[in-house]
Every structure is written in C-alpha cells, then in structure tokens.
Amino acid sequence: MSRSGTSVGTVVRWDEQAHGAVLEVPGLAGDVWADAAVVDTADGTLRAGQVVSVEWAEEPQHGRPFRALRVQRREDLQATPGA
C-alpha cells in the first residue's frame, strides 16, 4: 500500500520544459514531482525557494518517488536557506 499525506515543503526548482516543479519535503525519502496542473496559483507556476503545502502520494512520476496531488503557496512561512 502506498503512503500519502499533507506536508510543508520547499520548491527546489521549476522545470519550464516539463511544466512542473521538484519539491523537497522533510521526512520523505526522495523528491516530490508537482505537475503544473496541481499547482493552486493563478499562473500555475512556482519559483525556487517558495514554501508550499503539498498533498502527496507515493506514486513515482518524472523520475521522482512521490507525486503531488495538490500544491498551495504558503505566504505565511519562509524557507531557511541551506536547511
């Protein structure tokens, strides 16, 4: 049975060609792929360093062990560089 959950993570990078982002979520052994379609923003994009809430599932996508089901920006939190 695959795992799933909701966590706070950080955008590692936005991949314009693949129309999605790589997210780092503490406690997960691997990155999360977030397709632009699941990003809850007006333009469907994110930028490196943004803090996000991510609903995720342990289902490989784009070479990552997890995929995002829903992503929202968290303007109330800031990333800690190098953490």
Task: Provide a compact summary of the structure.
The chain has 83 residues and is mainly β. It has strands at residues 4-15, 20-24, 32-35, 51-57, 66-73.
Main sheet record: 5 strands, mixed, barrel
Q: Tell me the total number of β-strands.
A: 5
State the fourth-level CATH superfamily.
Nucleic acid-binding proteins
Termini separation (Å)? Answer: 31 Å
The tally of structural domains comes to: 1
Q: Give the count of helical stretches.
A: 0
Spatial sequence of strands, sheet with the most strands: 1-2-3-5-4
Query: Looking at the chains present, what oligomeric state does this protein adopt?
Result: single chain
Radius of gyration: 11 Å
What is the H/E order?
EEEEE
The CATH topology is given as OB fold (Dihydrolipoamide Acetyltransferase, E2P)
Structural class by SSE content: mainly beta
Second CATH tier, the architecture: Beta Barrel
Provide the helix percentage: under 10%
Overall 3D shape: globular
Mean pLDDT comes to 89
